[in-house]
Write a structure and sequence with these properties.
The protein is of the alpha/beta class. The chain is built from five helices and seven strands; from the N terminus they run αααββαβαββββ. It has two domains: about 100 residues, 2-Layer Sandwich (GMP Synthetase, Chain A, domain 3), CATH 3.30.300.130; about 60 residues, no CATH class. Helices cover about 25% and strands about 20% of the residues. A four-stranded mixed sheet has the order 4-7-6-5. Strands 1-2-3 form a three-stranded mixed sheet. The relative contact order is 0.14.
């Protein structure tokens, strides 16, 4: 199993119900970037399962953190999560949006980063955790996901979605999105 960014206890790792819920969530894709599951994107912050008796079933409570406040995809993601869990037989589902701590691209799994690159989107680079005024003045060297060249240039701070910037490779001449760090 790929590393998961949410806190996991040893009992949850061996609990078949927690494992099943994680496996279901790993099939739910981000609607804007279909190669990323909600697990790979790192927006699932907590999974709580209250196991009741057989006739009442289990109640699942998920805490999710949107990639940014006002993300237009969050409602679609919540619906997709609910539908996947309902299809798997779960009936009591609570999905709670949690805004703190704020989501960061550091929460994207390594598998997610590999999937982004294979899809043609440059994955976010790891950032220093301390910001300074100088951090916003320099342009990052972004690797082209198609030919791996660092000889690229920023075309626009805004790409196909608000969380991406548009770059072009100066070697292979192809445009590509870069998943911006935040």
């Amino acid at each position: 199993m790929d590393s998961i960014n949410l806190p996991v206890t040893l009992s949850e790792l061996s609990d078949p119900l927690h494992i099943k819920v994680r496996e279901i969530l790993a099939t739910v894709s981000d609607p804007e970037i279909p190669v990323l599951s909600v697990i790979d994107l790192g927006i699932i912050r907590d999974i709580s399962i209250s196991q009741e008796n057989e006739s009442n079933g289990s109640e699942i409570t998920l805490q999710i953190t949107p990639t940014y406040t006002g993300c237009p995809a969050i409602d679609t993601i919540k619906i997709s999560i609910r539908m996947a869990l309902l299809e798997a037989g779960f009936k009591k589902i609570n999905i709670i949006e949690v805004l703190s701590p704020a989501w960061t691209t550091d929460w994207i799994t390594e598998k997610g980063r590999e999937n982004l690159k294979a899809y043609g989107i440059a994955p976010p680079q790891y950032q220093q955790s301390v910001c300074s005024p100088d951090s916003f003045q320099k342009e990052e060297a972004i690797q082209c996901p198609l030919c791996n060249s660092y000889h690229t240039r920023l075309v626009s701070q805004f790409g196909s979605t608000a969380c991406k910037a548009l770059y072009q490779c100066n070697d292979c001449k192809e445009p590509f999105d870069y998943f911006k760090c935040h």
